[in-house]
Structures are given as structure tokens and as C-alpha cells.
Amino acid sequence: MIDVISYLPAKRKQTASGWISVNAPCCVHKGETADRRQRGGIKPGADGSWSWHCFNCGFTASFVVGRTLTFKARRLLEWMNVPAEEIERINLESLRHRNMEGLLSDRQQVANQLQSIEFEDRDLPADTMPLSAAAQAYLQARMAPADYPFLYKTMPRPGVVIPFTHDNQVVGHTTRFLDDRTPRYIQDIQPGYVFGTDLQKATWQTAIVVEGVFDALSISGLAVLHAEINDAQVRLIRSLGRDIVVVPDQDKAGMRLVDRAVELGWAVSMPDWPADVKDVNDAVIRWGRLATVITILQAKETSKIKIELRKKQLVKRLR
Ligand SMILES: [Zn+2]
């Protein structure tokens, strides 16, 4: 088994949430002063996989057993003074653990490269920290999954940082500020990005497409992150090979999403929710995840005429 812990600096601290904190070796390479407050965190998984996040400079890297070492994971190991031949050994050892899921994800990656669905690795903002009690309560109230790697920051305003991942690598993020001032979100998003591909399970046949990041988080759906679906996003969603159901927000902007879904030939679901339930996240908060998903699948429509009729009903109510 690949044991990355043995390469960590001897001075380390284990936190209740599973992070091991050490002085981060990344910061000096990112133009920051050397970390002396143990702000580098590594979260080991049961099988030898791990993810790294630096709470000081924002550098992220992750490693999945069965996959090749990524560029950023290699750099991190180098910065930890792991010898080059040892890094190669880790890489080979990892590939020996390649399983069916790894092979499938490789095939997906090749397909993605052919269709140029690729995103560059991004760091998260500097100066983040583990979730405060208030941030944790906020996420719980919005029914966000407890095991998603949320972070917290206080500058310029207190907010929850939601990493955007693709293929388990960090490729951007959004921050949801916790005060009610606008803007409520700021995003680092790459063109064509769709949130939630890493939330999809290999056995699922249907993918539910929603607008917002919290809608996606609360039902493991895909979020297009605005009320439109651009062509690059369409390519990415199609590449997943699932049946698609689009669930628009029940507001004016959401109705534009319906038109786009019809144009693409995708199914649409507009469940009969009361007027104060505007989106999937509202529904999950009220009825829970399972009940919401069932309602969505029951209200799924593929007939263009039926979709138009349902849309008319909703538009009437929105006036
Ligand atoms: Zn760092």
C-alpha cells in the first residue's frame, strides 16, 4: 500500500475531521512566506488515496489509487523532498491497483480529451480555514452533504468556499457569503464547466441537471451554474452518456432553461411545488432528498407539447 503519511514532516497534528496538519511546503513556491503554523492539511482515504489542501496559500492536489500521479501531486511530493525514484515507484504502485472503475475513468478521460473537455487545475483561495460553527449550521440547513470538502473564509466577508472539481481535481470554486449582502456569490469558473460530475455514481442511468450549486449538492445532480446551458456544457453533459432530466428553477429565468432543454431534446421536470418552493434545494429542505428525487422523476416529461403546457401554467403563476 502507498503510505504518503510517512513522507510528511515529523511535526504533525491530527484533527477531529480527519485532516493531518503539517507545516506546508507549498507556500514558498507560491510566493508566500514559509508556513510555520501547520496550515497544510492532508486528508488520507482508507485505500491510500489522499487529498491535500493548504489553508495558507490555497494550493490543492489529490491522488487516487489506481490513477497516475497528477502534475500537482508530483510537485507536492517533490516539495516534501520525496526522491524522484520514490515518486515513480508510487506512480507504478498506483497503476498496479487499477480496477474496473479506474479503467472506465481512463476511457472517459480519453474521450474527454478527444472532445477537448478539459479544465486546468486551479488553486483555492488563500487564507481559508475549516468550517466555523455558523458555516456548518448554514450548510446543514441547506441540506448540503456533510462529506463534501467545504472550506471557510472570513475575508472580505465570511463565506463558505465550495471547491469545483472535475475528475476529482480542483478546477475552480465558488464562495457563498453568509451575510445577506450582494453579491451573494463570487466564482472562479472555467468556460464549459458543469458542477457535479464527480457526484455521479457509475451505476446511475439518469443525471438531473439543475441551475445552482446547492441544488446539485442536495440531490447529487449536475449544475450548469446559471439559467443557460452553453454548447461546451452540452458536450460535457452528453459525454456522460446518461438520460438527462432538466429541472429549472420555478422563476422567469428558469423558463429560458426549459426552452433550451426542449431545443436539445432533453427531458424536463417541473414538479407541482407550492409557490414558495422555487428550486430543488428548497424542495429538499422541505421534503428531504429521496422524496424530492422521486417527485422530479415522476414529473419528468419528454413530450414537447406537454412541456410547453406545463411551462404555460407556471408562467401564469409567476405573473
Ligand atoms: Zn501553501
Task: Characterize the structure shown.
This protein is of the alpha+beta class. 34% of the residues lie in helices and 19% in strands. It contains ten helices and 14 strands. The chain has helices at residues 71-79, 84-96, 100-114, 133-141, 213-219, 231-239, 252-264, 280-287, 289-298, 304-318; strands spanning 12-14, 20-22, 40-44, 50-54, 60-63, 151-153, 159-166, 169-177, 185-188, 206-210, 222-223, 243-246, 267-269, 300-301. It has a five-stranded antiparallel β-sheet. A hairpin with a 5-residue loop joins β6 (151-153) and β7 (159-166). The radius of gyration is 21 Å and the shape is globular. The N and C termini lie far apart (61 Å). The mean pLDDT is 90. Zinc ion (ZN) binds at residues 24, 26-27, 30, 35, 40, 54, 56-57, 59.
The portion of residues forming beta strands comes to 15-25%
What would the average pLDDT be, to the nearest integer?
90
Strand order of the largest sheet: 1-2-3-4-5
Uncertain residue ranges: none
Output the helix-strand order: EEEEEHHHHEEEEEHEHEHEHHEH
The gyration radius over C-alpha positions equals 21 Å
Strand tally:
14
Distance between the termini: 61 Å
Classify the helix fraction into a percent range.
25-40%
So what's the overall shape? globular
Number of helices: 10
How many strands, which pairing sense, and closed or not: the largest β-sheet? 5 strands, antiparallel
Bound molecules: zinc ion
Class per helix and strand makeup: alpha+beta
